[in-house]
Amino acid sequence: YFLKNIVAMCDLDKNYLAEAASFLQEQAGAQAMMTDDYRRVLDAKDVDAVVVTVRCPPRSFCNSFSVASFN
């Protein structure tokens, strides 16, 4: 059910994005904006909430996205 509510995904790894897009299409018959620029997600008018799930070192891209999503 929740997969149909996904409107955007962001990752720096384009291979992962392609895999995620394929998974979303196969499992939910849905499509979402796929980008490597988190600012596009934050600027999207159809995004109501942001879920940040990351595993990366401190003081990296991940922290910038997490902070920006709260502003």
Helix-strand layout with pairing:
Elements: E1 8-10, H1 14-28, E2 33-35, H2 38-43, H3 61-70
Parallel strand pairs: 1-2
Low-pLDDT stretches are none
Average pLDDT number? 81
Q: What radius of gyration results from the CA coordinates?
A: 12 Å
Give the biggest sheet.
2 strands, parallel
Q: What is the first-to-last residue Cα distance? A: 28 Å
Q: For the largest beta sheet, what order do the strands appear in spatially? A: 1-2
Range of strand content = 5-15%
Q: Would you list the SSEs in sequence order as H and E?
A: EHEHH
Helix-strand category: mainly alpha
**Coarse morphology:** globular
Count the beta strands. Answer: 2
Count of helix runs: 3
The percentage helix is 40-55%
Description:
There is one protein chain. The relative contact order is 0.18. The chain has three helices and two strands; from the N terminus they run βαβαα. α1 (14-28) links the parallel β1 (8-10) and β2. The protein has a two-stranded parallel ribbon. The protein starts with 7 loop residues before the first strand and ends with a helix. With 71 residues, it is mainly alpha-helical.
